[in-house]
Write a structure and sequence with these properties.
alpha+beta, 3 helices, 4 strands, 21% strand
Length: 86
């Protein structure tokens, strides 16, 4: 049996997702909600926000990686792009 809850649309078009729905779907701050419309019905899909630590170890290079150094490198790269106006 499904969970039936109602939300509310604000004047800015934002939708409040009831707490029970968020709990059941595991929705947390920063997650993305994809709305799929088919045959006049809407389906929600939750895309969990990934953290940098979730990605550690995905690429197997055979080398050790320093997470702090990777963060510093990423921040430096973004800073360089900002300075160049990219």
């Amino acid at each position: 049996m499904g969970v039936y809850e109602s939300g509310k649309v604000t004047s800015k078009g934002q939708v409040t997702i009831p707490v029970e729905v968020r709990k059941q779907l595991g929705i947390t701050t920063g997650d993305k909600i994809i709305v799929i419309i088919q045959n006049g019905e809407a389906k929600l899909e939750v895309r969990k926000q990934k953290k940098l630590t979730d990605l550690v170890g995905i690429l197997k290079t055979g080398q050790e990686h320093d997470l702090q150094e990777a963060r510093k490198s990423a921040i430096d790269s973004v800073g360089d792009s900002y300075k160049k106006g990219e």
